[in-house]
Amino acid sequence: MADNFLAPGKVISGSHALESAAETIGGMGKKALVVTDAMMEKLGNLDRLTCMLSESGVSYAVYADINGEPDDRMVERGVRLYQEEKCDFLVGLGGGSPIDSMKAIAMITEYGGKPADYMGKTIIRRLPPMAAIPTTAGTGSEATQFTIITDRSSQVKMLLKGPSCMPDIAVSVRRFTIT
Fold it and tell me: Are 63 and 77 a contacting pair, CB within 8 Å?
């Protein structure tokens, strides 16, 4: 049996990583759904990202309600916003929760249904393009094919997986990870 090593299609890191990633992220689509949390707004990281998107000619909508561990209701609200705003790609900014939520939103946007429908299945069909911008060094969600979403009705933490859940680009911005 062969082992496969999966990684994002592109990884950019360093003190000017966001600026270096602007062309790649700007080429992912016309309108991004930025999935993040209130702390990224408070720290100004969201402003830095949205300025880069604007300068790259990319429209965006912000979904900043990923506070705490992600659950199916957060994902469903993100899917609605993605569809209402007519987005065509996603950017996850923050720790593992926003990035995991971004992946699940992409999955449900493409496949329909609810996150619980995909527990135990491997997602292989292409998802909308995804850029992950981590601000912690804990989960590694920006470089894995996995996402953890809690089903609120059963209180089960679901592992959703598949090579399609791997972000297209991971951008590690030094100033976003310094506390």
Answer: yes
pLDDT in tens, 37-66: 999 999 999 999 999 999 999 999 999 999
DSSP H or E run through 159: strand 156-161
Q: Which two tokens stand for residue 115?
A: 């996150």
Q: Which residues, other chains included, contact 129 with Cβ-Cβ below 8 Å and sequence gap of 6+?
A: 28, 29, 88, 89, 90, 168
pLDDT band at residue 7 under the 50/70/90 scheme: low
Q: Would you say 177 and 136 are in contact if contact means Cβ atoms under 8 Å apart?
A: yes
The Cα 172–Cα 21 span in angstroms is 10
Q: Read off the tokens for 8.
A: 């994002």
Q: Is 73 helix (H, G, I), strand (E, B) or coil?
A: helix
Tokens of 128: 């909308």
Residue 65: φ, ψ to 5°: -100, 25
By three-state DSSP, how is residue 150 classified? strand
Tokens standing for 88?
């065509």
- How far is Cα 94 from Cα 161, in angstroms, rounded to an integer? 20
